[in-house]
Amino acid sequence: MLATRIRRLACAGLVAALAACGSAPVGPGYYRVERGDTLSKIARANRQSVQNIVRWNSLSNPDSIEVGQVLRVAPPSGTVSSGNGASRGTAESTTPAARGGTTADSTPPAAPSAAPAAPISLVWPAAGNVVRGFDGKNSKGIDISNSPGTPVVAAARGTVVYAGNGLRGYGNLLIIKHNGDYLTAYAHNRTLLVKEGQTVAQGQKIAEMGDTDSDRTMLHFELRYEGRSIDPSRSLPPR
């Protein structure tokens, strides 16, 4: 459908905007993906192989990294990276067993799991029916359908960092920064009631539901943690 194609085209721009608004410093040995990056470019810049970075970050698709995504670019503790892309235990060539000719255990270590998102308490941004859920691929958030003009409220206290319609496919869009880690986005609004730089309270009315750049009246709502989309329904109270 046309709306789906438009949303996919706009996705990269939205990810860049959200990551730019909410980027937090990363620790040594990690790198935050920037616009225009590829995995091979990141690997070269950090003198690592693509295979190492894929392994350390459990990447199922090396061609599908996102702006704002945090990647490990240095070996996990207890391993070293080799020039051909393999990771070896540090015991190799240093332990008595290795010097005596016994092959060191070359089984690659388990990749570190992603750090769990710190909890954030949200309220529902609008009344209505959830007509589309989060899947992390084609849908980066949830869609809530209701009648035109239904109040849209801030899901948590924060600062408005974007208010406009410059991201095609999202219509009248608001982005609220809650802290160094979290952002929420509110798309397809009929009317925006707050401005960039404005501080809003949790539950405050910030917009009215509409159908700008959409084939139906609805709110498209996204939650991002360190620039990456996560399922907002897990942070919303049950209805």
From TrEMBL:
Entries under SUPFAM superfamilies matching the protein: Duplicated hybrid motif
Coiled coil start-end: none
InterPro entries named among the record's database cross-references: Cell_wall_metabolism_enzyme, Dup_hybrid_motif, LysM, LysM_dom_sf, M23ase_b-sheet_dom
Residue ranges of every copy of the LysM domain listed in the record: 29-73
SMART domains per the UniProt record, alphabetical: LysM (SM00257)
Record flagged with keyword Signal: yes
Low complexity composition-biased segments: 102-116
Signal peptide: 1-19
Keywords: Signal
Domain of life: Bacteria
PROSITE patterns, alphabetized: LYSM (PS51782), PROKAR_LIPOPROTEIN (PS51257)
Disordered: annotated span: 76-116
Comp. bias (Polar residues): 78-96
Family: Belongs to the E.coli NlpD/Haemophilus LppB family.
Protein name, as recorded: Peptidoglycan DD-metalloendopeptidase family protein
